[in-house]
Amino acid sequence: MSKQDEQAQRAWYALHTYSGYENAVLRNLKQRIESMGMTHKIFDVVIPTEKKIKVTGGKRTPVEEKIYPGYILVDMIVDDESWFVVRNTPRVTGFVGSGTTPVPLSQEEIDMLFKRMSTDVAKHKIDFAIDELVVITDGPFKDLEGKVGDIDEEKGKIKVLVSMFGRETPVELDFLQVRKL
């Protein structure tokens, strides 16, 4: 097979796995690729993750979070042999596609995913929704109740509408300064 034919057939595919077993599937598949001599047809296996900031116990902790839990990506040339190796890996439920035919991901999807995965800036993991009732736990407005008016995930800020002097006043706070009612 010429290099050009290989490039034409080579693509990224999404694999469905048992949720929570993505790391085990990744390890198993990489071992199978090596032991079954498939490195010329299966090139890479990736679990798409991104950096997020979770607030737990009042502390910000950076975490790697799966973008698509229950899925891993495989860069490969699909033929009967390579399909068999991937499909029969323990805890793989199948390729994403129609029927038994794997459908490759588009280049735009792959570019967007890899861009999201390579971002060093962690996003805040926020558990609040607009109009949700919260209580302020810290700062000059401590113990006041209000409702969420705006959420800025990039900065880790939240605007809470607090009733003061007979009108709703927006107060900008850090996520750590509020909790759900």
TrEMBL record:
<dbReference type="InterPro" id="IPR008991">
    <property type="entry name" value="Translation_prot_SH3-like_sf"/>
</dbReference>
<comment type="similarity">
    <text>Belongs to the NusG family.</text>
</comment>
<dbReference type="GO" id="GO:0031564">
    <property type="term" value="P:transcription antitermination"/>
</dbReference>
<dbReference type="GO" id="GO:0032784">
    <property type="term" value="P:regulation of DNA-templated transcription elongation"/>
</dbReference>
<dbReference type="InterPro" id="IPR005824">
    <property type="entry name" value="KOW"/>
</dbReference>
<dbReference type="InterPro" id="IPR043425">
    <property type="entry name" value="NusG-like"/>
</dbReference>
<keyword id="KW-0806">Transcription termination</keyword>
<dbReference type="GO" id="GO:0006354">
    <property type="term" value="P:DNA-templated transcription elongation"/>
</dbReference>
<dbReference type="InterPro" id="IPR036735">
    <property type="entry name" value="NGN_dom_sf"/>
</dbReference>
<dbReference type="InterPro" id="IPR001062">
    <property type="entry name" value="Transcrpt_antiterm_NusG"/>
</dbReference>
<dbReference type="Pfam" id="PF00467">
    <property type="entry name" value="KOW"/>
</dbReference>
<comment type="function">
    <text>Participates in transcription elongation, termination and antitermination.</text>
</comment>
<keyword id="KW-0805">Transcription regulation</keyword>
<protein>
    <recommendedName>
        <fullName>Transcription termination/antitermination protein NusG</fullName>
    </recommendedName>
</protein>
<feature type="domain" description="KOW">
    <location>
        <begin position="127"/>
        <end position="154"/>
    </location>
</feature>
<dbReference type="InterPro" id="IPR006645">
    <property type="entry name" value="NGN-like_dom"/>
</dbReference>
<dbReference type="Pfam" id="PF02357">
    <property type="entry name" value="NusG"/>
</dbReference>
<keyword id="KW-0889">Transcription antitermination</keyword>
<dbReference type="InterPro" id="IPR047050">
    <property type="entry name" value="NGN"/>
</dbReference>
<dbReference type="InterPro" id="IPR015869">
    <property type="entry name" value="Transcrpt_antiterm_NusG_bac_CS"/>
</dbReference>
<dbReference type="GO" id="GO:0005829">
    <property type="term" value="C:cytosol"/>
</dbReference>
<dbReference type="GO" id="GO:0006353">
    <property type="term" value="P:DNA-templated transcription termination"/>
</dbReference>
<dbReference type="InterPro" id="IPR014722">
    <property type="entry name" value="Rib_uL2_dom2"/>
</dbReference>
<keyword id="KW-0804">Transcription</keyword>
<feature type="domain" description="NusG-like N-terminal">
    <location>
        <begin position="9"/>
        <end position="117"/>
    </location>
</feature>
